[in-house]
What does this fold into?
Amino acid sequence: MTGQQYNIDTISNNLSNVNTTGFKQNRVDFEDLLYQTTRTAGTPATELTVTPVGVQVGHGVKVAATQKMYTQGALQNTGNISDLAIEGEGFMRVMLIDGTYGYTRDGSLKIDSNGQLVTSQGYRLMPDVVLPEGFVRESLTISQDGRITVKIDRNDDPIQVGQMQLFRFVNPAGLNAIGENLLKVTNASGDPIGGRPGFDGMGSVQHKFLEMSNVSVVQEMVNMIVAQRAYELNSKAIQTSDSMLQIANNLKR
It folds into this structure.
C-alpha cells in the first residue's frame, strides 16, 4: 500500500505539471522484497529425483528508483521574441545564485534591465548574452544553430551579439531536479558535454516556440486508476487476512 501511495504521488505530480514548460514525466520503478523460502528448488525428493520448483512467499514491494523520461515535448508557437525551444537533445545552462550551474529546457526567457537573457527567476543564461542598448526588439532573432542577432536601427543590417551553447549528458536521468525547472549535475549524470545547437549530437533551437510538458494526461489518468485499484485490493487483502486469523483464533473457544 505504501508503494502504491508513492506511485499515486508521482502520477499526481506529473498531472500537476502538465502545463509546465519543458517538464519531463517522472516514472516509478518498483522491485520485490526479500522472499521467505520454505523449500529450495532442487532439493532431493528421492534418491533419483529433485524438486523442480521451490516454495517461496514474497514480502511485498518497494520503490527501486524514480527517473525522468526525456522524450520530446510538443512545440507551441508563442510569437514572443525571447521564447525558444530545444528540439532534440540538450539543455541550456544558467548561473545560480551560489555561483554553480543549473540546467534547464524551459525556454521562456526574459530580458532584464541590463539587456541580459535570464530565466523567470532571474538566472542568467550562460554563456552571457547582453543585448545592446536601444536595439530594435522586433529584430531579435535566434537561429537554429544558436546565433543571436539584433538590429540597432531598423535600417541597419543585423549584428551578432551572442552564441548559444547547449549541453548534453551521458545519463540525463541521473540529473538532480531542484525545482524551478532546474537540474543539477551529479556523479550519476556524468560531466556536461557542450556544443553548438545542431552540431555534435545537439538539438536545434526553435525561436518563438516553447517546448511543452511531455506528460500524457490520458496515460496518467489510466495509471492513476490502476494504482488506485491496486491500493484498494491490497487493503482488501489485509482485511481478509485479518479476518481469517480472527476465525482461526476463535476456533479455540
User: Anything to note?
Assistant: The first strand starts at residue 26 and ends at 32. The mean pLDDT is 93. DSSP finds two helices and 20 strands in the chain. Residues 217-250 form the longest helix (34 residues).
